[in-house]
Write a structure and sequence with these properties.
The structure holds two protein chains of two kinds. By secondary structure, chain A is of the alpha+beta class. Chain A has three helices and five strands; from the N terminus they run βαβααβββ. Chain B is globular, with a radius of gyration of 16 Å. Classes of the chains: A alpha+beta, B alpha+beta.
């Protein structure tokens, strides 16, 4: 059975400044042969949302509630989130 | 016990709940909203959390504190939503046999919250409404 394209997409949760700059609380991106890692995802998001790039907001990426590195592999069932610099307390 | 909540933090309740019959020392740290930042007057703050991840990391911090200092009880509560000047945004409380562990563990708790827990604050000041400069979280 072949999977529908929508099955191979990943949802990315957005918070704080990244949510306001993009204007949504989550975005969905297709997973392709060119997008298999967190580094690929970061690049794709910055290309899709140049405003995030120009705002110079740096962000970490969490996968399944853990801070990931650019080499972390992505699966369409992962819970992914952009984390701008934190300021709790 | 850890919590991310929109409800006001009752410090007296925290103090009562952290008590333990085998503990001789108790520390309670609270963080509250200052009426200024380095650029001027602050009137209110808005806190936002990635709740599911924030709660998981608070549990990690709780486990680290219990393992390292053998504390009797550990409580960490962080508020979200709109807060006014003097409102308490965060409370960390520890009970342990002696004061040294209670002070160190409490300090570790609040420092870890500030460097690892995904929470963001936005300040309403004379300059407008701005997300506060923060720290980029690191991979372990």
């Amino acid at each position: 059975m072949t999977k529908k394209e929508s099955d191979l997409a990943i949802t990315v949760k957005l918070f704080a400044s990244s949510r306001e700059i993009i204007g949504k609380d989550k975005i969905r991106l297709k997973l392709t042969d060119q997008m298999t890692t967190v580094g690929d995802l970061r690049k794709a998001i910055l290309e899709l949302y140049p405003s995030l790039h120009s705002s110079k907001v740096h962000f970490a990426i969490a996968v399944n509630h853990k801070v990931a590195t650019d080499t972390t592999a992505l699966n369409h069932l992962d819970e992914v989130a952009l984390l701008p610099p934190i300021s709790g307390g | 016990m850890i919590s991310i909540t929109e409800s006001p933090i009752d410090v007296f309740k925290v103090l009562m709940e952290v008590q333990d019959r085998s503990a001789g020392a108790t520390t309670v740290f609270t963080g509250s909203i200052r009426d200024h930042n380095d650029k001027g007057t602050v009137s209110e703050l808005y806190y936002e959390a990635y709740k599911e991840m924030a709660e998981e990391i608070l549990v990690e911090i709780e486990n680290e504190v219990i393992k390292r200092w053998h504390v009797k009880k550990f409580i960490a509560i962080h508020r979200t939503g709109n807060l006014k000047v003097s409102d308490i945004s965060v409370a960390v409380a520890v009970s342990s046999e002696h004061r040294k562990e209670a002070f160190e563990a409490c300090r570790y708790g609040i420092d870890s919250i500030k460097s690892r827990v995904p929470i963001w604050k936005k300040e309403v000041s004379e300059l407008g409404t701005l997300w506060t400069d923060g720290v980029l979280v690191n991979h372990d």
